[in-house]
Amino acid sequence: MTQTTGFFTTSDHAHLYYEVHGSGQPLFLVHGWQCSSKFWQRNVPELAKHFQVITMDSRGHGKSSKGLQGQIVARYAQDVRELSEFLGLKNFVLMGWSLGGPIVLSYWQQYKHDSNLLGLGLVDMTPFPFSPEEWNSQGLHHYNMEGFNAQVNRLINEREEYFEFFANAIFKDGKRPAGTDWVIEEFRKLPPWLSAAIYSDYIATDFTDVLPTITVPTLVVNADGPVFAWGIKQGTYLTTLIPNGKFVPFTESGHMLFYEEADKFNKTVCDFVQDCMLPKV
């Protein structure tokens, strides 16, 4: 399996870490808030047997530079665009988990007339965390700015306790399994001021109206858990807004469904990408 790792410099001079594994049809995976490429560790080795898999540490996250600039979803999407051009990707499939979902939708919003995309994937995400609509099960729904302020306070003043809480919350039973200390280690790599900045943009930016504009096949996968209490209901509804959407529920996992149900996720993604590759009649 071929592998490339390195850094590339964006148009606004951020230095972003990326990895390329495998060859063939390109598949670009975008991680969530506080996370990194390492979160795909149970997926990349298998998916790279079939595709060229690209991962990137979003600015501020993981191994990428910690500059103050560009901590908004739209710029993160531009970073995806710039890396795809740097690598010369053609007709790739772009999938995003959690915060990565709005990044994917922002990419489509900005570049839909020249997207270079074959398909999209939305992994356990909401297009508008502040939404007051019944479908939204994010904890800050209905414009809960007080909840956000309390979260930022914990993130800065009770940092390790908050990381432990959040690390538990991303698993199905609200308790992280043995052998996942690396999750908190990755959380620590995002400085708190950058963490608050990108999250404040994420919760208040509404990409719901982007869903009906998507013209490529789109995979939506969700689970119920501490992060999205009724995630399956949420994903089912959101899929109805996408013209060529396909929904797959995950029932034995939580927010990190691709880690807890890795075999099912890998097969679901393989089948979806291969379907995207079929000639259109």
Description of the molecule:
- By secondary structure, this protein is an alpha/beta fold.
- Helix content is 37%, strand content 17%.
- It has helices at residues 44-47, 73-86, 100-111, 145-157, 159-169, 181-187, 192-204, 231-240, 257-260, 262-277; strands at residues 3-9, 15-21, 26-30, 52-56, 92-97, 117-123, 218-223, 245-250.
- Strand 5 (92-97), helix 3 (100-111) and strand 6 (117-123) form a beta-alpha-beta unit.
- The radius of gyration is 17 Å and the shape is globular.
- The model has no long low-confidence stretch (mean pLDDT 97).
Short précis:
The chain has 281 residues and is α/β, with parallel strands linked by helices. The chain has helices at residues 44-47, 73-86, 100-111, 145-157, 159-169, 181-187, 192-204, 231-240, 257-260, 262-277; strands at residues 3-9, 15-21, 26-30, 52-56, 92-97, 117-123, 218-223, 245-250.
End-to-end distance, in Å? 33 Å
Number of strands: 8
Structural class: alpha/beta
Determine the number of helices (DSSP H or I, runs of at least 4 residues). Answer: 10
**Quaternary structure classification:** single chain
